[in-house]
Amino acid sequence: MHQNRKDIAVLVGSHRKDSINRRAALALAGLGPESVALDLVEASHLPFYNQDFDADAASAPASYSDFRRRIARADGVLFITPEYNRSYPAVLKNAIDIGTRPYGKNVWSGKPGAVISISLGALGGFGANQQLRQQLANVNMAVLQQPEIYIGNAGALFDGDGKVAVETTRDLLRGFIASFAAWTDRAGTAAAA
What we know:
This protein has 193 residues and is α/β, with parallel strands linked by helices. The protein contains six helices and six strands.
């Protein structure tokens, strides 16, 4: 086991039980270098963000505080998203909003991040990927620019056990997670300086 493993929180935009995006997240956990540990962080249980909770912290759902603490301690965040109507799902937008509040306590700020979009369609979630990248830049995350990953026609790429069924896809994801691990080191060092 690597002594100083980077803690990478993984947020999946689809909370469907048999989600291809969830399968990809599970696959990535087994493809990364020893220097990173990927941890699936659930966000679908979070109530919709409500600014009233900022004024009265005692009335805020405990899940908000738990989520914020989890993201704050992560060394980086990987977003894996499907595309719904040319955008990323509400579950991710809600999680991002919760993490930026209360004002002045943005847990995303300066944190290394990356996006993978996966869809059954041919375009690989390009619209969702680009919109999510823009949103992450807006909350001051250090977003990995290259490689960009858009995986289309993904229906047969992952098996039910969270394994990649196609060797070229496995190689692509292995290369991506290695790049993200290196990015987390560089961006994390810059943020700490």
